[in-house]
Amino acid sequence: MTVPVRKKQNVTILGSTGSVGVNTLDVLALHPDRYDLYALTANSNWETLAEQCCAFKPKFAVLKQRENLPVLEDRLLQAGCKTKVLAGIDALCAVAADKDVDVVMAAIVGGAGLEPTLSAVNAGKKLLLANKESLVMSGSLFMEAVEQAGVILLPIDSEHNAIYQCLANGAPNHATGVRKIMLTGSGGPLLRKPIESLTKVTPDEACAHPNWKMGRKISVDSATMMNKGLELIEASLLFSLSPQDIEVVIHPQSIVHSMVEYVDGSVVAQLGNPDMRTPIAHGLAWPDRIESGVVSLDFTGLGKIHFEAVDLNRYPCLALCQQVACQPQSYAIALNAANEVAVQYFLNELIPFTDIPIIIESVLEQTSYEEAHTIDSILALDEEAKHRAVKKIRAR
Ligand code: NAD
Ligand code: MG
What we know:
It contains 15 helices and eleven strands.
């Protein structure tokens, strides 16, 4: 019997210079027989993008910011690299949707990822979704587009990837007999810090995650547990579950990546070392399995793993997300937008850590009930909420 020859897959990585992007390249480097790189993209980091182009030889490299296009072109020319260089949002959307692309890794951080990610969805690409903010912002519009285009959507966020693996048949639409989902979260680097001392937390302290090495925005979101709140909204959309059926549990060791409890009392969990290459490899190869470069989990050397309830007084951002998960889309957009602004101001040392939930809550208080059925209305609500957040910060 002859073994059928598998067609190589063309991959675009949106946000290749970031933490998820680099981990994706690490996995792809192990499988040159299965994948070719079609495009790599970055916001402004042309130096890392140039290095990646020389190493991986994609057909296209795209910078969101046009200013650095000439230097990138120059560097690639000097290095004899034939990658074609493009810039701007239209180019980002184009390399996500091109007919030659099979798989898109959506790993841009924040709402900036919405348009290129949706562009991949509308073009029917297999989508590996790390960029949770784009899903949170666009909600049912995103999921309807996925449905309409018949897209294979693999969650890359480790918790959602775990849930996907724990659900019978792996497919979200088969989430039958589920009693609840337990989203695990480490609690971040400030889990044991006295609440009254949180006003003094520095950006470096907030970004010093005990188990995961990630970009700075998601690291701050992990310290406030906004990340888990966004993930709660993400899970309810991905798996068509009511937010009330999703429980957040603190699990400081980040070994159990999430769990599904069924009505018969069975609990199915996915475990592994905290390393994003596992969900990335799972998403890339699904329904197959491929090597990720991640070492085996050493059960006998693990020591104690434990779980505890979340103290919402310590994590008010999570409480805000629990409310927003049950409200119209305008609230999720406002929450995400205000958080992006507040986190940036905190990282620039312009507001204290504890102001983040205060800013978000005050933006939410001024939000009106509105559904958002078009991408333009989502972007308009996003911009409006960002303006309100900046105004609040300046008024403090
Ligand atoms: P990062 O900050 O390390 O990288 C972000 C990438 O997006 C970079 O390539 C950057 O150039 C690009 N980018 C930033 N702003 C842009 C803009 N305005 N336009 C176009 N490109 C832009 O972020 P990350 O930690 O890799 O996270 C990426 C996404 O994946 C986030 O949505 C995050 O929540 C999610 N995620 C990350 C991890 C992780 O381990 N890092 C885990 C789960 C989910
Ligand atoms: Mg996660």
